[in-house]
Each structure stands twice: as structure tokens, then as C-alpha cells.
Design goal:
Blueprint lengths: L7 H17 L44
Length: 68
Amino acid sequence: MNQLYKSKSQVREETADALQQFLAAGGKIEVVKAKKAPKQKMRAKTSKGFAGGSSGFATGYSRSSFGG
């Protein structure tokens, strides 16, 4: 019968045994520091091509030119 659940202590024992076998066979454990990702900054859209408050209308057209 297959065992579906193992207790934490049983898993811990099996992991420790596997680790000892790995080290005895000549395995090495290296601790590698993770590289920190650069912080992302919130940037406002203030480029020359951005028209603030255009409410979805294309840049360069006045609102009165549509449908009139």
C-alpha cells in the first residue's frame, strides 16, 4: 500500500539521510547570494508626445471636429 502522507519529522529524517549520502559521495553545497532587482519607480507620463486630459481622443484633433 502506498503512503500518501508523511509526517514532518519523517520527511526531515529522510532529507537528512539523503543529504549525508550526497556529502559522503563527494557532493558540495554552495551558498549563492541572490542578486537584488533594481527598485521600480513610479514615473509620470510627462513626455512631449503625451497630451494630458485628452480623455481618449486622438492628439491633435479638437473635440468639436468629430461628428460636426
